[in-house]
Design a protein that fits this description.
The chain has a single domain, classed as Orthogonal Bundle (MetI-like fold). The protein is mainly alpha-helical. It is 84% helix and 0% strand. One of its GO terms (molecular function) is ATP binding. Belongs to the binding-protein-dependent transport system permease family. Residues 20-213 form the ABC transmembrane type-1 domain.
């Protein structure tokens, strides 16, 4: 029985390897977008609450609207609704890189909200210290906020990565491939349940490694 299982997995190994690489590409692109755009976006939304001004008030409302809409939108419908925009930006709405675009939108929105929440949980002492030293907004962000909140920001990013693993499993709808699409096409639809459960176990292991690594790193850099 074990020999039959090994033979079956070996037969599907090229497709499994391809699916894993597709998932990796989609998740990597979305996480880079989350850090590059979601981190400053969440920081700005936070600043509009603790340092309100007329000029930033409306921008804060618009950014909050974007975050709320994207996070509340049913993901599969969001992917389909974004097809015209994806085609306009990338020239195609089909494939792994096209699938990474809606994933990136969601990753940015989720991480932005988590960043805001992490910063809001910071003690007021840090803000008071920054103000007493006459810090500029840039200094406040990089020398106080991010330094004090780095552990929470890492944990928040860990949660986003895990969410992207989950979201990426449905990207076969627009030809994105990935491990979820592999499990469905080569496992469930062909009644190869051993293949399907192998893919599921791989995803569980991957998520567990991400969670353990993220928790370890957050604890490592936590100087409180």
């Amino acid at each position: 029985m074990m020999t039959a299982y090994i033979d079956k997995i070996s037969y599907y190994l090229p497709e499994l390897t391809k699916a894993l690489s597709e998932s990796g590409i989609m998740i990597l692109i979305s996480i880079v977008a989350a850090v590059a755009l979601g981190l400053p976006l969440g920081t700005f939304v936070y600043l509009t609450k603790i340092l309100p001004s007329k000029s930033s008030q409306w921008i804060g409302i618009l950014l909050n609207g974007y975050i709320n809409i994207v996070r509340s939108f049913p993901f599969l419908l969001f992917v389909v609704a974004l097809i015209p925009f994806t085609r306009f930006v990338l020239g195609t709405a089909f494939g792994t890189y096209a699938a990474a675009l809606p994933l990136s939108f969601v990753a940015v929105a989720i991480y932005a909200r988590l960043v805001e929440q992490v910063l809001l949980e910071m003690p007021n002492d840090s803000l008071e210290l920054a103000r007493s030293l006459g810090s500029t907004k840039v200094q406040l962000i990089f020398r106080f906020l991010y330094v004090e909140a780095r552990s929470g920001l890492v944990l928040a990013l860990t949660s986003v990565i895990i969410s992207m693993v989950s979201y990426s499993t449905v990207m076969g709808v627009i030809g994105g491939g990935g491990i979820g699409d592999f499990a469905l096409r080569y496992g469930y639809q062909r009644y190869e349940y051993a293949v399907m459960y192998t893919a599921i176990v791989l995803m569980i292991v991957f998520v567990s490694v991400i969670q353990i690594s993220g928790s370890w790193l957050a604890k490592k850099i936590n100087k409180k």
